[in-house]
From TrEMBL, chain A:
Positions of the ABC transporter domain: 26-256
Similarity section: Belongs to the ABC transporter superfamily.
Zinc in keyword set: no
GO cellular component: membrane
Name of the molecule in the record: ABC-2 type transport system ATP-binding protein
Organism, scientific name: Blastococcus xanthinilyticus
InterPro entries per UniProt: AAA+_ATPase, ABC_transporter-like_ATP-bd, ABC_transpr_TagH-like, Bact_Polysacc_Export_ATP-bd, P-loop_NTPase
GO molecular-function term, one example from the UniProt record: ATP binding
Sequence intervals crossing the membrane: none
TrEMBL record, chain B:
Parts of the chain that traverse the membrane: 69-92, 104-127, 147-169, 175-199, 211-229, 270-291
The keyword Membrane appears for this protein: yes
Family to which the UniProt record says this protein belongs: Belongs to the ABC-2 integral membrane protein family.
Gene Ontology BP terms: lipopolysaccharide transport
Protein name according to UniProt: ABC-2 type transport system permease protein
Gene Ontology CC annotations of this record: plasma membrane
Cell compartment(s), UniProt: Cell membrane
ABC-2 type transporter transmembrane domain sequence ranges: 55-261
Coiled-coil portions: none
Length: 256, 302
Protein backbone atom coordinates (compact mmCIF):
# COMPACT_ATOMS: atom_id res chain seq x y z
CA UNK A 1 0.00 0.00 0.00
CA UNK A 2 1.44 3.40 -0.85
CA UNK A 3 1.86 5.93 1.86
CA UNK A 4 -0.23 8.80 0.54
CA UNK A 5 -3.24 6.53 0.13
CA UNK A 6 -2.81 5.26 3.67
CA UNK A 7 -2.36 8.73 5.02
CA UNK A 8 -5.69 9.92 3.74
CA UNK A 9 -7.50 6.95 5.15
CA UNK A 10 -6.07 5.97 8.50
CA UNK A 11 -7.77 7.67 11.40
CA UNK A 12 -9.56 7.03 14.62
CA UNK A 13 -12.10 9.42 15.94
CA UNK A 14 -14.45 9.14 18.86
CA UNK A 15 -17.13 11.52 20.01
CA UNK A 16 -18.31 11.26 23.63
CA UNK A 17 -17.82 7.51 23.48
CA UNK A 18 -18.67 5.59 26.63
CA UNK A 19 -18.32 1.93 27.45
CA UNK A 20 -20.69 0.46 30.05
CA UNK A 21 -20.26 -3.11 31.13
CA UNK A 22 -23.36 -4.95 32.23
CA UNK A 23 -22.50 -7.08 35.25
CA UNK A 24 -24.67 -10.15 35.02
CA UNK A 25 -24.94 -12.29 38.06
CA UNK A 26 -26.25 -15.82 37.72
CA UNK A 27 -29.79 -14.65 38.28
CA UNK A 28 -30.02 -11.96 35.67
CA UNK A 29 -28.31 -14.08 33.04
CA UNK A 30 -31.17 -16.55 33.17
CA UNK A 31 -33.99 -16.24 30.69
CA UNK A 32 -36.42 -17.58 33.27
CA UNK A 33 -35.78 -14.60 35.50
CA UNK A 34 -36.25 -12.14 32.68
CA UNK A 35 -39.51 -13.71 31.60
CA UNK A 36 -40.83 -13.98 35.13
CA UNK A 37 -39.77 -10.39 35.67
CA UNK A 38 -41.94 -9.35 32.74
CA UNK A 39 -44.95 -11.21 34.10
CA UNK A 40 -44.53 -10.46 37.76
CA UNK A 41 -44.75 -6.69 37.59
CA UNK A 42 -42.64 -4.35 39.68
CA UNK A 43 -41.66 -5.97 42.89
CA UNK A 44 -38.90 -3.48 43.29
CA UNK A 45 -37.52 -0.80 41.05
CA UNK A 46 -34.23 -2.59 40.55
CA UNK A 47 -35.82 -5.88 39.52
CA UNK A 48 -34.90 -6.76 35.96
CA UNK A 49 -32.10 -4.23 35.88
CA UNK A 50 -28.53 -5.15 35.40
CA UNK A 51 -25.91 -3.11 37.24
CA UNK A 52 -23.41 -1.55 34.93
CA UNK A 53 -19.89 -0.32 35.41
CA UNK A 54 -19.01 2.68 33.37
CA UNK A 55 -15.52 1.73 32.24
CA UNK A 56 -15.09 4.65 29.88
CA UNK A 57 -16.94 7.95 29.84
CA UNK A 58 -17.09 10.72 27.27
CA UNK A 59 -13.99 9.81 25.35
CA UNK A 60 -13.49 12.34 22.60
CA UNK A 61 -10.36 12.14 20.50
CA UNK A 62 -9.24 12.39 16.95
CA UNK A 63 -6.11 10.60 15.80
CA UNK A 64 -4.69 10.89 12.31
CA UNK A 65 -2.01 9.12 10.35
CA UNK A 66 1.34 9.68 12.04
CA UNK A 67 -0.03 9.94 15.57
CA UNK A 68 2.18 8.32 18.21
CA UNK A 69 0.12 8.31 21.35
CA UNK A 70 1.10 6.94 24.74
CA UNK A 71 -1.53 5.97 27.27
CA UNK A 72 -0.75 6.48 30.93
CA UNK A 73 -2.83 5.94 34.01
CA UNK A 74 -3.17 3.77 37.08
CA UNK A 75 -4.34 0.20 37.05
CA UNK A 76 -8.03 0.17 36.31
CA UNK A 77 -8.03 3.66 34.85
CA UNK A 78 -9.42 2.32 31.57
CA UNK A 79 -6.30 2.03 29.40
CA UNK A 80 -6.97 -1.49 28.19
CA UNK A 81 -10.66 -0.83 27.71
CA UNK A 82 -9.79 2.28 25.72
CA UNK A 83 -7.50 0.24 23.48
CA UNK A 84 -10.33 -2.21 22.90
CA UNK A 85 -12.68 0.63 22.08
CA UNK A 86 -10.13 1.98 19.59
CA UNK A 87 -9.69 -1.47 18.04
CA UNK A 88 -13.43 -1.87 17.49
CA UNK A 89 -13.79 -4.84 19.85
CA UNK A 90 -16.11 -2.81 22.04
CA UNK A 91 -18.48 -0.57 20.19
CA UNK A 92 -19.37 2.38 22.40
CA UNK A 93 -22.61 2.00 24.32
CA UNK A 94 -23.10 5.74 24.03
CA UNK A 95 -21.44 8.20 21.68
CA UNK A 96 -19.65 7.43 18.46
CA UNK A 97 -16.42 5.82 17.40
CA UNK A 98 -15.17 5.44 13.87
CA UNK A 99 -12.05 3.56 12.96
CA UNK A 100 -10.56 3.69 9.48
CA UNK A 101 -7.67 1.40 8.72
CA UNK A 102 -6.51 -2.12 9.36
CA UNK A 103 -6.09 -2.57 13.10
CA UNK A 104 -3.46 -4.81 14.65
CA UNK A 105 -4.20 -5.09 18.35
CA UNK A 106 -1.38 -6.53 20.43
CA UNK A 107 -2.88 -6.85 23.89
CA UNK A 108 -1.85 -10.29 24.91
CA UNK A 109 1.14 -11.94 23.33
CA UNK A 110 -0.30 -15.39 23.94
CA UNK A 111 -3.73 -15.04 22.33
CA UNK A 112 -4.29 -17.27 19.34
CA UNK A 113 -1.31 -19.44 20.19
CA UNK A 114 -1.88 -23.16 20.28
CA UNK A 115 0.43 -25.14 22.59
CA UNK A 116 0.01 -28.37 20.66
CA UNK A 117 1.28 -27.20 17.30
CA UNK A 118 4.79 -26.28 16.23
CA UNK A 119 6.34 -22.85 16.45
CA UNK A 120 6.25 -22.51 12.65
CA UNK A 121 2.53 -23.24 12.50
CA UNK A 122 1.91 -20.82 15.35
CA UNK A 123 3.72 -18.10 13.45
CA UNK A 124 1.35 -18.55 10.51
CA UNK A 125 -1.79 -18.68 12.65
CA UNK A 126 -0.83 -15.70 14.76
CA UNK A 127 -0.17 -13.76 11.57
CA UNK A 128 -3.57 -14.69 10.15
CA UNK A 129 -5.15 -13.44 13.36
CA UNK A 130 -3.37 -10.14 12.93
CA UNK A 131 -4.88 -9.73 9.47
CA UNK A 132 -1.99 -10.97 7.35
CA UNK A 133 -2.38 -13.49 4.56
CA UNK A 134 -0.78 -16.90 4.61
CA UNK A 135 1.51 -15.92 1.75
CA UNK A 136 2.72 -12.79 3.50
CA UNK A 137 3.51 -14.83 6.59
CA UNK A 138 5.39 -17.47 4.62
CA UNK A 139 7.56 -14.72 3.15
CA UNK A 140 8.36 -13.45 6.62
CA UNK A 141 8.95 -16.77 8.32
CA UNK A 142 12.73 -16.83 7.78
CA UNK A 143 13.07 -13.34 9.15
CA UNK A 144 11.00 -14.24 12.20
CA UNK A 145 12.92 -17.45 12.75
CA UNK A 146 16.22 -15.55 12.66
CA UNK A 147 14.94 -12.93 15.07
CA UNK A 148 13.63 -15.40 17.64
CA UNK A 149 16.91 -17.39 17.61
CA UNK A 150 14.86 -20.48 18.38
CA UNK A 151 16.43 -22.60 15.64
CA UNK A 152 15.29 -26.20 15.56
CA UNK A 153 12.86 -25.56 18.39
CA UNK A 154 10.52 -23.96 15.86
CA UNK A 155 9.53 -27.44 14.65
CA UNK A 156 8.69 -28.50 18.21
CA UNK A 157 5.24 -28.09 19.73
CA UNK A 158 4.79 -24.81 21.57
CA UNK A 159 4.11 -26.60 24.85
CA UNK A 160 7.79 -27.55 25.05
CA UNK A 161 8.80 -23.86 25.10
CA UNK A 162 9.73 -21.91 28.18
CA UNK A 163 7.86 -18.68 28.94
CA UNK A 164 10.71 -16.61 27.59
CA UNK A 165 10.80 -18.61 24.37
CA UNK A 166 7.09 -18.08 23.89
CA UNK A 167 7.51 -14.35 24.33
CA UNK A 168 10.30 -14.40 21.74
CA UNK A 169 8.08 -16.18 19.27
CA UNK A 170 5.11 -13.92 19.88
CA UNK A 171 7.23 -10.77 19.67
CA UNK A 172 8.81 -12.04 16.48
CA UNK A 173 5.45 -12.41 14.80
CA UNK A 174 3.93 -9.26 16.17
CA UNK A 175 6.86 -7.11 15.10
CA UNK A 176 6.92 -8.56 11.58
CA UNK A 177 3.50 -7.32 10.49
CA UNK A 178 2.58 -4.18 8.58
CA UNK A 179 -0.35 -2.66 10.43
CA UNK A 180 -2.09 0.60 9.60
CA UNK A 181 -3.21 1.09 13.18
CA UNK A 182 -1.08 -0.49 15.87
CA UNK A 183 -2.51 -0.79 19.36
CA UNK A 184 -0.01 -2.00 21.91
CA UNK A 185 -0.68 -2.95 25.47
CA UNK A 186 2.32 -3.45 27.69
CA UNK A 187 3.25 -6.96 28.68
CA UNK A 188 6.54 -7.01 26.94
CA UNK A 189 8.79 -8.57 29.52
CA UNK A 190 10.06 -11.96 30.58
CA UNK A 191 12.93 -11.86 28.11
CA UNK A 192 16.59 -11.48 28.77
CA UNK A 193 18.23 -8.08 28.50
CA UNK A 194 20.09 -8.72 25.23
CA UNK A 195 16.91 -9.86 23.56
CA UNK A 196 15.00 -6.93 24.98
CA UNK A 197 17.45 -4.52 23.35
CA UNK A 198 16.98 -6.32 20.04
CA UNK A 199 13.20 -6.32 20.32
CA UNK A 200 13.15 -2.62 21.15
CA UNK A 201 14.82 -1.89 17.83
CA UNK A 202 12.35 -4.10 16.03
CA UNK A 203 9.46 -2.58 17.91
CA UNK A 204 10.46 0.93 16.91
CA UNK A 205 10.85 -0.22 13.29
CA UNK A 206 7.34 -1.61 13.51
CA UNK A 207 6.05 1.66 14.91
CA UNK A 208 7.73 3.51 12.06
CA UNK A 209 5.89 1.32 9.56
CA UNK A 210 2.55 1.67 11.29
CA UNK A 211 0.36 4.58 10.30
CA UNK A 212 -0.93 5.20 13.78
CA UNK A 213 0.19 4.00 17.19
CA UNK A 214 -1.52 3.92 20.56
CA UNK A 215 0.65 2.41 23.26
CA UNK A 216 -0.36 1.78 26.86
CA UNK A 217 2.57 1.44 29.20
CA UNK A 218 3.87 2.11 32.66
CA UNK A 219 7.40 2.51 31.40
CA UNK A 220 8.46 6.11 30.79
CA UNK A 221 11.48 4.87 28.90
CA UNK A 222 9.40 2.90 26.39
CA UNK A 223 6.90 5.72 26.06
CA UNK A 224 9.61 8.29 25.31
CA UNK A 225 11.11 5.96 22.73
CA UNK A 226 7.89 5.29 20.81
CA UNK A 227 5.50 8.18 21.40
CA UNK A 228 5.37 11.95 21.04
CA UNK A 229 1.96 12.72 22.50
CA UNK A 230 0.11 11.13 25.39
CA UNK A 231 -3.27 10.65 26.98
CA UNK A 232 -3.66 10.36 30.74
CA UNK A 233 -6.61 8.21 31.72
CA UNK A 234 -8.23 8.39 35.11
CA UNK A 235 -11.49 6.83 36.30
CA UNK A 236 -12.44 5.98 32.75
CA UNK A 237 -12.08 9.54 31.52
CA UNK A 238 -9.41 11.47 29.70
CA UNK A 239 -7.74 13.60 32.33
CA UNK A 240 -5.15 15.20 30.13
CA UNK A 241 -4.21 14.98 26.49
CA UNK A 242 -1.18 16.59 24.93
CA UNK A 243 2.58 16.55 24.51
CA UNK A 244 4.17 13.43 26.00
CA UNK A 245 6.53 15.27 28.38
CA UNK A 246 3.79 17.57 29.66
CA UNK A 247 1.45 14.68 30.32
CA UNK A 248 4.15 12.60 31.98
CA UNK A 249 5.12 15.50 34.20
CA UNK A 250 1.53 16.11 35.25
CA UNK A 251 0.93 12.40 35.76
CA UNK A 252 4.05 11.88 37.85
CA UNK A 253 3.54 15.13 39.71
CA UNK A 254 0.15 14.31 41.10
CA UNK A 255 -0.01 12.46 44.41
CA UNK A 256 -0.90 8.83 43.82
CA UNK B 1 -1.08 -6.10 30.59
CA UNK B 2 -3.07 -3.81 32.81
CA UNK B 3 -6.36 -4.98 34.14
CA UNK B 4 -9.56 -3.52 32.64
CA UNK B 5 -11.37 -1.18 34.97
CA UNK B 6 -14.31 -3.42 35.55
CA UNK B 7 -12.39 -6.28 37.10
CA UNK B 8 -10.62 -4.40 39.83
CA UNK B 9 -13.01 -1.81 41.13
CA UNK B 10 -11.40 -2.06 44.53
CA UNK B 11 -7.98 -0.77 43.50
CA UNK B 12 -7.24 2.09 45.85
CA UNK B 13 -5.41 4.06 43.18
CA UNK B 14 -8.00 3.43 40.49
CA UNK B 15 -10.77 5.22 42.29
CA UNK B 16 -14.32 3.93 42.58
CA UNK B 17 -15.90 2.88 39.30
CA UNK B 18 -19.11 4.58 38.39
CA UNK B 19 -21.93 2.15 38.97
CA UNK B 20 -25.36 2.75 37.55
CA UNK B 21 -28.05 0.54 36.13
CA UNK B 22 -29.78 -0.08 32.84
CA UNK B 23 -32.74 -2.33 31.98
CA UNK B 24 -31.72 -5.91 31.38
CA UNK B 25 -32.20 -6.36 27.67
CA UNK B 26 -32.48 -2.84 26.31
CA UNK B 27 -30.20 -1.94 23.49
CA UNK B 28 -27.62 0.78 23.81
CA UNK B 29 -29.31 4.12 23.27
CA UNK B 30 -27.60 4.94 20.00
CA UNK B 31 -29.46 3.38 17.13
CA UNK B 32 -27.40 4.43 14.16
CA UNK B 33 -24.97 1.52 14.52
CA UNK B 34 -27.74 -1.04 14.61
CA UNK B 35 -28.24 -1.03 10.90
CA UNK B 36 -28.50 -3.82 8.42
CA UNK B 37 -25.29 -2.77 6.74
CA UNK B 38 -23.09 -3.59 9.71
CA UNK B 39 -24.84 -6.93 10.20
CA UNK B 40 -24.24 -7.83 6.57
CA UNK B 41 -20.71 -6.45 6.77
CA UNK B 42 -20.08 -8.88 9.61
CA UNK B 43 -21.17 -11.80 7.47
CA UNK B 44 -19.24 -10.76 4.39
CA UNK B 45 -16.19 -9.62 6.37
CA UNK B 46 -16.04 -13.03 8.01
CA UNK B 47 -16.34 -14.69 4.64
CA UNK B 48 -13.37 -12.65 3.48
CA UNK B 49 -11.24 -14.25 6.20
CA UNK B 50 -11.63 -17.70 4.71
CA UNK B 51 -7.97 -18.53 5.03
CA UNK B 52 -8.16 -17.92 8.79
CA UNK B 53 -11.24 -19.95 9.65
CA UNK B 54 -10.41 -22.53 7.01
CA UNK B 55 -7.11 -23.11 8.71
CA UNK B 56 -8.58 -23.05 12.21
CA UNK B 57 -11.31 -25.52 11.27
CA UNK B 58 -8.68 -28.01 10.11
CA UNK B 59 -6.64 -27.26 13.17
CA UNK B 60 -9.62 -28.11 15.41
CA UNK B 61 -9.94 -31.52 13.80
CA UNK B 62 -6.25 -32.34 13.91
CA UNK B 63 -6.13 -31.08 17.47
CA UNK B 64 -8.77 -33.55 18.56
CA UNK B 65 -6.78 -36.53 17.32
CA UNK B 66 -3.30 -35.22 17.95
CA UNK B 67 -0.74 -37.83 18.89
CA UNK B 68 -3.08 -40.65 17.92
CA UNK B 69 -1.66 -42.85 15.21
CA UNK B 70 -4.73 -42.90 12.99
CA UNK B 71 -5.65 -39.24 13.49
CA UNK B 72 -8.93 -37.95 12.03
CA UNK B 73 -9.65 -41.38 10.56
CA UNK B 74 -10.97 -42.11 14.05
CA UNK B 75 -14.00 -40.00 13.13
CA UNK B 76 -14.69 -42.43 10.30
CA UNK B 77 -14.05 -45.51 12.40
CA UNK B 78 -16.26 -44.50 15.31
CA UNK B 79 -19.09 -43.64 12.93
CA UNK B 80 -18.70 -47.04 11.24
CA UNK B 81 -18.76 -48.87 14.57
CA UNK B 82 -21.84 -47.02 15.80
CA UNK B 83 -23.77 -47.42 12.56
CA UNK B 84 -22.99 -51.11 12.16
CA UNK B 85 -23.82 -51.92 15.78
CA UNK B 86 -27.08 -49.98 15.74
CA UNK B 87 -27.91 -51.35 12.30
CA UNK B 88 -27.62 -54.92 13.50
CA UNK B 89 -29.49 -54.17 16.73
CA UNK B 90 -32.45 -52.40 15.14
CA UNK B 91 -32.64 -54.71 12.15
CA UNK B 92 -33.21 -57.45 14.71
CA UNK B 93 -35.62 -55.43 16.86
CA UNK B 94 -37.80 -54.23 14.00
CA UNK B 95 -37.44 -57.45 12.02
CA UNK B 96 -36.06 -55.57 9.01
CA UNK B 97 -33.47 -56.80 6.57
CA UNK B 98 -29.96 -55.67 7.52
CA UNK B 99 -29.32 -54.48 3.96
CA UNK B 100 -32.21 -52.03 4.41
CA UNK B 101 -31.81 -51.05 8.05
CA UNK B 102 -28.06 -50.50 8.12
CA UNK B 103 -27.76 -48.05 5.18
CA UNK B 104 -30.79 -46.18 6.54
CA UNK B 105 -29.31 -45.79 10.02
CA UNK B 106 -25.87 -44.95 8.67
CA UNK B 107 -26.99 -42.08 6.43
CA UNK B 108 -29.38 -40.79 9.08
CA UNK B 109 -26.61 -40.84 11.62
CA UNK B 110 -24.12 -39.01 9.44
CA UNK B 111 -26.61 -36.22 8.74
CA UNK B 112 -27.67 -36.08 12.37
CA UNK B 113 -24.05 -35.77 13.51
CA UNK B 114 -23.77 -32.64 11.38
CA UNK B 115 -27.06 -31.15 12.56
CA UNK B 116 -26.52 -31.79 16.25
CA UNK B 117 -22.92 -30.58 15.98
CA UNK B 118 -24.04 -27.26 14.52
CA UNK B 119 -26.69 -26.78 17.20
CA UNK B 120 -24.87 -27.90 20.34
CA UNK B 121 -21.54 -26.33 19.44
CA UNK B 122 -23.36 -23.34 17.98
CA UNK B 123 -24.90 -22.60 21.35
CA UNK B 124 -21.37 -22.39 22.71
CA UNK B 125 -19.66 -20.75 19.76
CA UNK B 126 -19.02 -17.29 21.23
CA UNK B 127 -18.56 -18.41 24.83
CA UNK B 128 -15.87 -20.87 23.73
CA UNK B 129 -14.09 -18.15 21.75
CA UNK B 130 -14.18 -15.56 24.53
CA UNK B 131 -10.42 -15.02 24.44
CA UNK B 132 -10.35 -14.33 20.72
CA UNK B 133 -13.43 -12.10 20.81
CA UNK B 134 -11.94 -9.94 23.56
CA UNK B 135 -8.55 -9.63 21.94
CA UNK B 136 -9.13 -9.38 18.22
CA UNK B 137 -11.65 -7.23 16.37
CA UNK B 138 -12.81 -9.97 14.02
CA UNK B 139 -16.34 -10.32 12.62
CA UNK B 140 -18.48 -12.66 14.73
CA UNK B 141 -19.21 -14.72 11.65
CA UNK B 142 -15.58 -15.92 11.59
CA UNK B 143 -16.32 -18.15 14.57
CA UNK B 144 -19.56 -19.37 13.01
CA UNK B 145 -17.96 -20.22 9.66
CA UNK B 146 -15.15 -22.01 11.46
CA UNK B 147 -17.69 -24.14 13.28
CA UNK B 148 -19.72 -25.00 10.17
CA UNK B 149 -16.51 -25.73 8.26
CA UNK B 150 -15.31 -28.04 11.03
CA UNK B 151 -18.62 -29.87 11.02
CA UNK B 152 -18.43 -30.15 7.24
CA UNK B 153 -15.02 -31.77 7.56
CA UNK B 154 -16.46 -34.25 10.04
CA UNK B 155 -19.24 -34.92 7.56
CA UNK B 156 -16.71 -35.56 4.80
CA UNK B 157 -14.85 -38.03 7.00
CA UNK B 158 -18.08 -39.83 7.77
CA UNK B 159 -18.95 -40.00 4.09
CA UNK B 160 -16.14 -42.52 3.69
CA UNK B 161 -18.22 -44.95 5.72
CA UNK B 162 -21.09 -44.35 3.34
CA UNK B 163 -18.89 -45.14 0.34
CA UNK B 164 -17.70 -48.38 1.92
CA UNK B 165 -21.30 -49.23 2.76
CA UNK B 166 -22.20 -48.80 -0.93
CA UNK B 167 -19.75 -51.59 -1.76
CA UNK B 168 -21.31 -53.97 0.75
CA UNK B 169 -24.96 -53.01 0.29
CA UNK B 170 -25.30 -51.45 -3.19
CA UNK B 171 -28.14 -48.93 -3.36
CA UNK B 172 -30.37 -48.27 -6.39
CA UNK B 173 -28.74 -44.92 -7.10
CA UNK B 174 -29.63 -42.79 -10.11
CA UNK B 175 -29.02 -39.18 -11.17
CA UNK B 176 -30.89 -37.94 -8.14
CA UNK B 177 -27.89 -38.79 -5.96
CA UNK B 178 -26.47 -35.47 -7.20
CA UNK B 179 -29.21 -33.76 -5.18
CA UNK B 180 -27.26 -34.69 -2.07
CA UNK B 181 -24.81 -31.90 -2.85
CA UNK B 182 -27.28 -28.97 -2.87
CA UNK B 183 -29.01 -30.64 0.05
CA UNK B 184 -25.81 -30.59 2.04
CA UNK B 185 -25.17 -26.96 1.09
CA UNK B 186 -28.63 -26.12 2.38
CA UNK B 187 -27.80 -27.95 5.58
CA UNK B 188 -24.60 -25.95 5.99
CA UNK B 189 -26.37 -22.66 5.27
CA UNK B 190 -28.87 -23.55 7.98
CA UNK B 191 -26.07 -24.58 10.30
CA UNK B 192 -24.66 -21.07 9.98
CA UNK B 193 -27.80 -19.23 11.02
CA UNK B 194 -28.46 -21.69 13.82
CA UNK B 195 -24.96 -21.25 15.25
CA UNK B 196 -25.10 -17.47 14.92
CA UNK B 197 -28.58 -17.11 16.43
CA UNK B 198 -28.15 -19.66 19.22
CA UNK B 199 -24.64 -18.40 19.84
CA UNK B 200 -25.76 -14.82 20.44
CA UNK B 201 -28.77 -15.73 22.57
CA UNK B 202 -26.95 -18.25 24.79
CA UNK B 203 -24.08 -15.83 25.31
CA UNK B 204 -26.57 -13.54 26.97
CA UNK B 205 -28.68 -16.22 28.69
CA UNK B 206 -26.35 -19.00 29.78
CA UNK B 207 -29.19 -21.25 30.97
CA UNK B 208 -30.19 -21.86 27.38
CA UNK B 209 -27.02 -23.85 26.79
CA UNK B 210 -27.93 -26.92 28.86
CA UNK B 211 -31.52 -26.65 27.66
CA UNK B 212 -30.32 -26.79 24.07
CA UNK B 213 -28.16 -29.83 24.77
CA UNK B 214 -31.09 -31.72 26.29
CA UNK B 215 -33.49 -30.82 23.50
CA UNK B 216 -31.05 -31.94 20.83
CA UNK B 217 -30.63 -35.26 22.61
CA UNK B 218 -34.39 -35.66 22.80
CA UNK B 219 -34.83 -34.78 19.14
CA UNK B 220 -32.52 -37.63 18.18
CA UNK B 221 -35.12 -40.07 19.43
CA UNK B 222 -38.08 -38.16 18.01
CA UNK B 223 -36.54 -37.99 14.54
CA UNK B 224 -36.69 -41.02 12.27
CA UNK B 225 -33.02 -41.90 12.30
CA UNK B 226 -33.01 -45.39 13.76
CA UNK B 227 -36.74 -46.06 13.19
CA UNK B 228 -38.34 -45.90 9.76
CA UNK B 229 -41.38 -43.70 9.74
CA UNK B 230 -42.47 -44.95 6.33
CA UNK B 231 -42.99 -48.37 7.91
CA UNK B 232 -45.04 -46.87 10.69
CA UNK B 233 -47.15 -44.84 8.26
CA UNK B 234 -48.08 -48.06 6.50
CA UNK B 235 -48.73 -49.83 9.76
CA UNK B 236 -51.89 -51.90 9.96
CA UNK B 237 -52.58 -50.38 13.36
CA UNK B 238 -54.36 -47.04 12.60
CA UNK B 239 -53.22 -45.44 15.89
CA UNK B 240 -49.58 -45.98 15.06
CA UNK B 241 -50.08 -44.68 11.52
CA UNK B 242 -51.76 -41.56 12.91
CA UNK B 243 -48.95 -40.90 15.34
CA UNK B 244 -46.33 -41.44 12.66
CA UNK B 245 -47.92 -38.62 10.69
CA UNK B 246 -46.97 -36.28 13.57
CA UNK B 247 -43.33 -36.80 12.62
CA UNK B 248 -43.97 -34.45 9.69
CA UNK B 249 -44.11 -31.61 12.18
CA UNK B 250 -40.55 -32.33 13.20
CA UNK B 251 -38.34 -29.99 11.14
CA UNK B 252 -35.36 -32.33 11.51
CA UNK B 253 -37.20 -35.03 9.56
CA UNK B 254 -37.16 -32.83 6.47
CA UNK B 255 -33.50 -31.95 6.80
CA UNK B 256 -32.59 -35.63 7.13
CA UNK B 257 -34.79 -36.69 4.24
CA UNK B 258 -33.45 -34.19 1.68
CA UNK B 259 -30.09 -35.92 1.95
CA UNK B 260 -31.09 -39.43 2.86
CA UNK B 261 -33.46 -39.96 -0.04
CA UNK B 262 -30.93 -39.22 -2.80
CA UNK B 263 -28.13 -41.09 -1.02
CA UNK B 264 -30.25 -44.23 -0.68
CA UNK B 265 -31.69 -43.97 -4.18
CA UNK B 266 -35.22 -43.42 -2.88
CA UNK B 267 -37.80 -41.33 -4.70
CA UNK B 268 -37.28 -37.66 -3.95
CA UNK B 269 -40.21 -36.12 -2.10
CA UNK B 270 -40.20 -32.40 -2.95
CA UNK B 271 -42.31 -31.54 0.07
CA UNK B 272 -39.19 -31.96 2.22
CA UNK B 273 -37.28 -29.53 0.02
CA UNK B 274 -40.00 -26.92 0.28
CA UNK B 275 -40.02 -27.16 4.07
CA UNK B 276 -36.23 -26.97 4.26
CA UNK B 277 -36.12 -23.92 1.97
CA UNK B 278 -38.84 -22.28 4.05
CA UNK B 279 -36.93 -22.87 7.27
CA UNK B 280 -33.76 -21.55 5.64
CA UNK B 281 -35.43 -18.26 4.75
CA UNK B 282 -37.24 -17.82 8.07
CA UNK B 283 -34.14 -18.82 10.03
CA UNK B 284 -31.88 -16.36 8.24
CA UNK B 285 -34.36 -13.55 8.71
CA UNK B 286 -34.48 -14.24 12.46
CA UNK B 287 -30.71 -14.52 12.55
CA UNK B 288 -30.24 -11.19 10.74
CA UNK B 289 -32.70 -9.41 13.02
CA UNK B 290 -30.83 -10.63 16.09
CA UNK B 291 -27.44 -10.00 14.51
CA UNK B 292 -28.39 -6.46 13.61
CA UNK B 293 -29.64 -5.71 17.08
CA UNK B 294 -27.15 -7.53 19.32
CA UNK B 295 -23.99 -8.05 17.26
CA UNK B 296 -22.10 -5.29 19.01
CA UNK B 297 -23.18 -6.56 22.44
CA UNK B 298 -21.59 -9.98 22.16
CA UNK B 299 -18.12 -8.76 23.13
CA UNK B 300 -19.67 -7.22 26.25
CA UNK B 301 -21.55 -10.38 27.14
CA UNK B 302 -18.90 -13.09 26.71
Amino acid sequence: MNVSETASRVSISTQNASVDFPIFDARSRSLKKTIMGMVGGNISTTEGKVPVIEALRDITMHLEHGARVGLVGHNGAGKSTLLRLLSGIYEPTRGEASINGRVAPVFDLGVGMDPEISGFENIIIRGLFLGMTRKQMEERIDDIAAFTELGDFLSMPLRTYSTGMRVRLALGVVTSIDPEILLLDEGIGAVDAAFLEKSKRRLSDLVDRAGLLVFASHSDEFLRELCDTAIWMEHGQIKLQGDLEDVLRAYKGQPA
Amino acid sequence: MSVPARTDPGQPTGGPPIVGSVPAMTAPPTTSRHDWRSALADLSGGWGQRSLWGHLGWQDIRQRYRRSVLGPIWITISMAVTAVALGILYAGLFGNDLSVQLPYILVGFIVWAFISGCITEGADVFIANEGLIKHLPAPLSVHVYRLVWRQSLFFAHNLIVYLIMLLVFPQPLDWSVLLALPAFLLLAVNGAWVAMLFGIVTTRFRDLNPITQSIVQLMFFLTPIVWMYQDLLNSSNPTIADRARLAEFNPFLHFIEVIRQPLLGQDVVWRHWVVVLGITVVGWVMCLVVLRRYRSRVSYWV
